[in-house]
Amino acid sequence: FDRAASGYDAAAFLQREIGARLLERLDYCRLTPKTILDLGCGTGQAIGALMRRYPRARVLALDFALGMLRLARRRGTWFNRPRVLCADAEALPLADGCVDLIVSNAALQWCNDLDRTFRDLLRVLRPGGLLMFTSFGPDTLRELRAAWAVADGLPAGVTQAQTHVSPFVDMHDLGDALVRARFADPVMDAEHLTLTYAGLRDLMRDLKGIGAHNAASDRPRGLTGPRRLAALEAAYETQRRAGRLPATYEVVYGHAWAPALAARGRHTDDG
C-alpha cells in the first residue's frame, strides 16, 4: 500500500464510490461527534466530506502505510487539517473512550483477526459512539477466481486450490464478530457492484494500483510465467459480455453502536 500511494486515487474508483455511499448512511444517524477516526484512511478520500459534515469535529486519519498518510495530511483546509497517525488497525495506540465516530472504508478486510480488531475499536469508542464501515465479501472477484481455477486445471466445481485471490469474510460472520465484541444493534447489508474492463491486464493494473496484492499465507510463491498468464487470460475471456470483461465486487456495509459502560462488562452464561 505504501508503494501504491502515488497512483492510488487514479485507480480507486470503486473505493471512492462505496466510500460516498457509506457516508450517505450517516444522514440517518443522529450524531454530533467531537472526534472522528478514519480507520485505514488511505490517501484520505473521505476526510473532506467528513469535515464538511462535521465542521467542529477533530478528524484522526490512521493508516499503516506512511506513503498514504503523506497524501492524507494534505486534505481539508489550511486551517483545519486531519491529525495523521501511522499505526496498525489491529493494535490502536489510542486511549479508551476517546472517539465518537469510527469510519472505515474498504480496510477491515485486510485485518487478520477481526475479533481482536472489533474489541479494540469498541475500546476506543465512547459510550453511544458509532462504528460504520465497508468491507468486501467472498463473492468479490469471483470471475478472476473462476478463471484461475481453469488455468490451474482444477476439476469442475472446485474454484480454488491455491489462493491466487485474497479471501474475504462473509457478511454474517462480520455481524457475528461485532456481537462477540459486544457492540450494540449491529446492522449488516451487502450489494454487488460490477466494473468492466477491456482486458484482464487492465483489471490487474487497477488491483496493483490500489495496492491490493495477494498476501495470503498459502498464495503461490513463484512468478506467473507467460504460459500461466496466457491460460488465465483465455479462461477469463470466456466471461466477456457485450465486449467487456466483468469484475464483480460484493460490498458489505455495517454499522454498530458502542453500548453503555455497564453493558460492555456484562457476560452471558456461555461466555
- Alpha-carbon Rg, integer: 20 Å
Helix content: 25-40%
Largest beta-sheet characterization: 7 strands, mixed
Strand numbers in spatial order across the main sheet: 3-2-1-4-5-7-6
Listing every helix as H and every strand as E from the N terminus to the C terminus, the arrangement reads HHEHEHEEHEHHEHHEH
The low-pLDDT segments are 214-223, 266-271
How many runs of DSSP E, i.e. beta strands? 7
Quaternary state of the chains: single chain
The end-to-end span amounts to 37 Å
Beta fraction of the residues? Answer: 15-25%
How many helical stretches? Answer: 10
Instruction: Note the overall shape.
Output: globular
Structural class: alpha/beta
If you average the pLDDT, what whole number results?
87
List the helices and strands and how they pair.
Blueprint: H1 5-11, H2 13-24, E1 35-39, H3 47-53, E2 58-63, H4 66-72, E3 83-86, E4 99-104, H5 114-124, E5 125-136, H6 142-151, H7 171-180, E6 184-197, H8 200-209, H9 226-237, E7 245-257, H10 261-264
Parallel strand pairs: 1-2, 1-4, 2-3, 4-5
Antiparallel strand pairs: 5-7, 6-7
Helix pairs in contact: 1-8, 5-7, 6-9
